# Entry
Amino acid sequence: MRFLAALLTLFLLTNLASGVARAQEARSATSPSPFQPALCRVHCGIRYGNGFLISSDGYVATSSWLVDGSQQVSVGFDNKMWPCNRVQVDPTRGLALLRIAPANQFTLGLGGGATIQGGATVDVVSLETPPGGTGATATTTTAKIGTVTTNSSTEERTFRLNLPYSRDLEGAAVCDPKTDMVVGIITSDLPPDPLGCRAASVDSLKLMLYNANVTISARVAPGL
# Structure
């Protein structure tokens, strides 16, 4: 009898733990990502990819490959398409800076490049649109930094992630999971490199802002 009672107790505890885990997964799946308010989709003809707001007055960081040479560029944000201005396009760094009209936007915070070390874990934050659907949702993918290359003249760094290149990741933010601050941005890598996605350091983005004489005003999204 004691054995049966112990077995029944174990069965109930196991099912209770399983139920709690399923409930937590369900909450996680349905809860909006804290990154979502600061993310956008960049559309340039047949090209599309990611961007993210870095200033509350409408400055958007993205990949230069998406916008370089494109006649029309628009940004999908807050379930609407917004025209935008190209502030600076820097193919050497692989980065572009856009600006949209709506002001007082939520942003991602810019961290420091010191986080970029081989073997470090980072979060790649992008928007994913359901096939044939509308309304993109934020997706966070954990990755590890591989090789890191430093420009001897400017000390800017590029790095590889252990993720296969995908157009859906173009322009995505690379964030420090401890602070949720941006430490890099995924840039074009065609043809795909077997070593993984290429990313530019946040230091390159800060230098581009400096060269464009842009001062940003952060309004970091709630929960970050």
